[in-house]
From TrEMBL:
Pfam families reported in the protein's UniProt record: Xan_ur_permease
Keyword Nucleotide-binding: no
Protein name as it appears in the record: Purine permease
Localization in the cell: Cell membrane
Amino acid sequence: MKQTAKNISLGIQHVLAMYAGAVVVPLIVGSAIGLSGSQLTYLVAIDIFMCGIATFLQVWKNRFFGIGLPIVLGCTFTAVGPMIAIGNEYGVSSIYGAILASGLIVILISSVFGKLVRFFPPVVTGSVVTIIGITLIPVAMNNMAGGEGSPDFGSQENLLLAFGVLILIILLNRFFTGFVRAISILIGILAGTVAAGFMGMVDLQPVQEASWFNIGKPFYFGTPTFELTPILTMTIVAIVSMVESTGVYFALGDICNKKITEKDLARGYRAEGLAYMLGAIFNAFPYTAFSQNVGLVQMSGIKTNRVIYITAMMLIGLGLVPKIAALATIIPSSVLGGAMVAMFGMVVAYGVKMLGQVQFASQENLLIVACSVGLGLGVTVVPEMFAGLPESVKILTNSGIVAGSLTAIILNIIFNIIPSPSRQKQSEEKVVQSQAS
């Protein structure tokens, strides 16, 4: 009985550690693509529900999928910018067509991806994540001011709330450690919403109108549509997510004293691919391994999958109650904006951290980062520069993320994978020096 209570309390901690990420992503995407209150409530509820399903698929190890480690899956922040861009240009249905197709691609390449990882070293993945983070910052700034097009855009009340939330998150990270720090974003959003309530800026009507129980509906937003550019964009996002998840798999394998084989990796990738496809069918999101929950496993010392199964069941239960989901939709845009600056800034910082593993003594690596980030940001800021190109070419230039990512991949192949005479000469000189010593 005592052990059961301990497992349940640890399950609650895992839910709280990932809940902010699970809730904020649908709020950001839904608000940015102009969903109604009821649609936003559905999006939050189904996302929490699918987080539980995706986690279950990864923990349940079988012949086809599931790595069998204590991993919690949640929607990836890497996909936020691309989904907003796709939704605004091609429509909501195209978001889910792209997620569905990219999930299928992940499943198809899962067995060989371990061998393809060399095409995605830190210089490539770090550049891609940095580009994605940079393209998200304007979304955060617009929300801080109250949301683009809002009548009180840039008002003192909005700025006060936004910077108040941001300062609180910073203070929590400065003066606290462990669990409080892990849920600092959630605390900041809750405190900001309460403050906004006292200022008369919170409307509780969506909570009153929401039902107590509801099950997700396949293709709630309509039949998926398939466009080449969105599919290419989400496939790049999926590959970056797979690279990140590989690091999580090995970290947990080390914590749990379990050797990770190529077959384990393939099953883990397939579980994520399945989570992508189910997310698309029920109009949720792409899912990836959450690193914050890995820290919780290490801190608690409890490495059993039983705790994660409890976490998955809690998430499924929460996702079946739209009233709980509706609570998240009443958060003012300015409150979200304050949290977004911290979160999106962390995406940029994480990209820079990944780039920290790169040997920048190499001029080639500097050039890869410079060209990919420069082109990715440039296309995002000035998309009309390619307006005169043929449609077949604009597939690669419509999105800064696609343009920057492909630039990083191609330049990495040119500089670091295709043998060059100068590199061959350097390696021969090193061999001669080592033999001489």
